[in-house]
Structure formats: C-alpha cells, structure tokens
Amino acid sequence: MNRIKNKMGGRPPKTDPANNRISVNLSDIEYADFLTLYEKSGVHSMASFIKARIFNETFRVVKVDGSLLDYTQQLSSFYNQYRAIGVNYNQTVATLKSKFEERKALTMLYKLEQQTVELVQISRQISALSLKFKELWLQKSASADHSQER
C-alpha cells in the first residue's frame, strides 16, 4: 500500500497546512476602503494581504509613475538607434579596410561622416531628455517634500 502512495503524483503535502478560517463582515464603505488598501499594497493575494495586516507585517506600496515609463521607453528607443548607427559605423570601417580602393573609400568615408553626425544628434537628444526628466523629477520631489512639511 505504501508503495502505491509513493508513486502517486501531485503536490507534496505541506508541513504546516493552513486549516483554520476566520470570517469578517464589512459594510460597503469598509469593503471599498479595504479593496483600496489591497490594490495599493501590490500583494499578490488577498489572503497574504489580510495576514500581513493582522500580524502587523510591513509591506511596500509601489506607485507607477507614467513619466518614468515614458522616459525609459524614449531612452530605450534612443539606445537602439545609437546601437544601429554604431553597427553601421563598424561595418563601414571594416569594409573600407578590406575591399575598396582610395576613391571608393572616400565615398564611404563621407557616408561614415553622416552617420557620425547622426550619432552626435542622438547623443544630444539623449542628454536633453535626461536633463528634462531630471528637472521634472526634482520638481516632483520638491513639491512632495513641501507638502509633507505642512
């Protein structure tokens, strides 16, 4: 009989299963407040949230800042463009070195120069975006600090 049980599949039994249940009745307003707290907590399950609140465990509230998301998306886009230009730059230099005579090489160098100008422009855009985001972030931090002082 033991031999048959050992061959059975499934989840292994827990060492300390949670068998005890507690029921709480909330009014509509209390339940709405509870759901708001639960959503802000970011905890994966309602049971974990309730246990944390009962036993005074700390948890973090994570707020997603849309401007941060926009910033990272634009920065990623710039990075991809920057990489593409760098790849073209390396391919051009390698091709010039191995396959072309001087006249053809000069034509390719002109194209390389254009890619370098584009690379500089993207670098400036990255710097401008970072400065703009930094100013915006500092303004938000300053206003948050100012509101906490009151």
Q: How would you portray this structure in words?
A:
With 150 residues, this protein is an all-alpha fold. The chain folds into two domains: 25-63, no CATH class; 66-149, Methane Monooxygenase Hydroxylase, Chain G, domain 1 (Up-down Bundle). 73% of the residues lie in helices and 0% in strands. It is built from five helices and no strands. α4 packs antiparallel against α5. The radius of gyration is 30 Å and the shape is elongated.
How is the topology of this model organized?
Layout: H1 2-6, H2 28-41, H3 46-54, H4 66-99, H5 102-149
Tell me the number of helical segments per DSSP (H or I, 4 or more residues long): 5
Give the overall shape: elongated
**CATH fold naming of the largest domain:** Methane Monooxygenase Hydroxylase, Chain G, domain 1
CATH class of the largest domain: Mainly Alpha
What is the radius of gyration computed over CA atoms, rounded to a whole number of angstroms?
Answer: 30 Å
Give the topology string: H per helix, E per strand.
HHHHH
Distance between the termini: 71 Å
What does the average pLDDT come to?
78
Q: Number of folding domains?
A: 2
Largest sheet: none
The beta-strand count equals 0
Give the helix proportion (percent range). Answer: over 70%
Share of residues in strands: under 5%
- Please identify the oligomeric state: single chain
Q: Show unreliable segments.
A: none
Structural class: mainly alpha
The CATH architecture of the largest domain:
Up-down Bundle
